[in-house]
Amino acid sequence: MIYSKQQQQEHVKEILHYLYVIALQDARIPIVVPTNQMTAEAALAVRAFQQAYGLPVTGEIDDATWDAIVWAYQRQINPPKPLVLFPNGGFVLQQGDSGELVYIVQVLLNLLAGRYGNLATVTVSGIYEIPTADAIMQLQTISGLPETGKVNQETWDRMASLISQLRLQI
């Protein structure tokens, strides 16, 4: 497709606007006021973005750079929402329960046990058995929570907080 000079300028201004918004939150990228011209300052900002996002550093906006800028812009203006898995209200997960939520709790316990030596691992079975209750009680003890061996909202929130601090390798 052939673009007119005006269309090219509109595209440059659009992508520089995205880069401007990203730079407001990312100190690695210099802030450049969007214009319809690819200036030396704009190329410097593009190079900084490319370096920060692991792209070949050229200062030019190729397809990969365009896509990465749009992706970063979209994430900034519309950040991902947290996944809320634990039921609301007075729900309590306890010994004898089973299902997907028990699987999740057991996986989280094992992730935490891999980081914190004073937590035991559990078998991921989807069944809330004594070892799972014991591991939850250990977590509650360490966290200064009431030691019930049951997962209520407070215990869940503490597990989620500890998990968010881990640098998980996916």
Average pLDDT, rounded to a whole number, is: 89
Largest sheet: none
C-alpha Rg (nearest Å): 24 Å
By secondary-structure content and strand pairing, the structural class works out as: mainly alpha
Outline the low-pLDDT stretches: none
Number of helices: 6
Shape: elongated
**Cα separation of the termini:** 39 Å
Proportion of residues in extended strands: under 5%
- Approximate helicity band: 40-55%
Number of strand elements: 0
- The domain count comes to 2
H/E topology pattern: HHHHHH
Topology diagram in text:
Blueprint: H1 5-25, H2 40-52, H3 63-77, H4 100-115, H5 130-143, H6 153-165
Question: Mind explaining what this structure looks like?
Answer:
The protein has 170 residues and is mostly helical. The chain folds into two domains: 5-77, no CATH class; 100-165, no CATH class. It contains six helices and no strands.
Comma- or semicolon-separated keywords:
170 residues; mainly alpha; 2 domains; 6 helices
Brief summary:
The chain has 170 residues and is an all-alpha fold.
